[in-house]
Structure prediction request, 303 residues.
Amino acid sequence: MASSRTQKEIRQRAPIWLVMLLFANLIVMAFDAQENFTKQNVFKGGVQALASPVQRATSWVSGTVGGFYRQLNNFGSTASENERLTRQLAVTELELRKAQEAVAENGRLRELLNLKEKTGYDQVAARVIARDGSVWFNTVTISCGSSSGIALNMPVVTPGGLVGRVIALSPWTAQVMLITDEKAAAGAIIGKLGESGALGSVRGLGNSGLVEMRYVSGLQKVSTGDYIMTTGQDGIYPPGLTVGEVVEVKPGTATQPHQIFIKPSARLDQLAEVAVLLYRPPQRPAPEHTLPNVDKTKVVRDK
Prediction:
């Protein structure tokens, strides 16, 4: 009875097993199936097709995140590199400015040395180390003093022209009054000494930065652009130093002198180096204390 029941169960389950075997065979065949043209596994291709969107999404997310972090790293590296290059550029610019200043200073010093040939006087080169606090810097302090042979009233010049004179001294510094100061004055002539009769005196005008020339006869011809030179008659400045250029003339008459305004030829607002001329004016003969033709040994008395 049991044996017949078992055979009956086998016959009933046989179709199920047959279906399962066929399904398993189909699966194996699907794994091994290939396209005729590409020879590609069909099952693998289907799986890849189904997985492709997920792979693309995953790849995009990972690429975006990775790119973001790489960009952050690049920004950090770029910022550091920019900072380094900025510091290097600043150092280079500073060195370039120093080199340019050194070249300019050497050029000015060479021009000062050439002044000795032009003026014929020994000189002391000095740097301007301080300026008066007024608008037009009517006095400056220079880096050499009495220990360098400088004395009071010695002229101070640049290659451009007359600067002023020494008014105070210490062993290592000197104070210079500029020709624009209201207390500064000098004998002057329009044109060259010996070739012009337009003699007069120049005096500073303070904060205007100009110099005025006085006492020039209204009969003398004076034009803007004429150059003014020192005459040496003031007992301070030697003859032949350039004072400046006429920028304005208020004509005079036969009885009234011209009013002449002069722009100094030396760049007084940009003084850096100057030269002090070791010039001492010639001694003037002492005046006679008695009238000429008077016999000092005889005294005539009326009796």
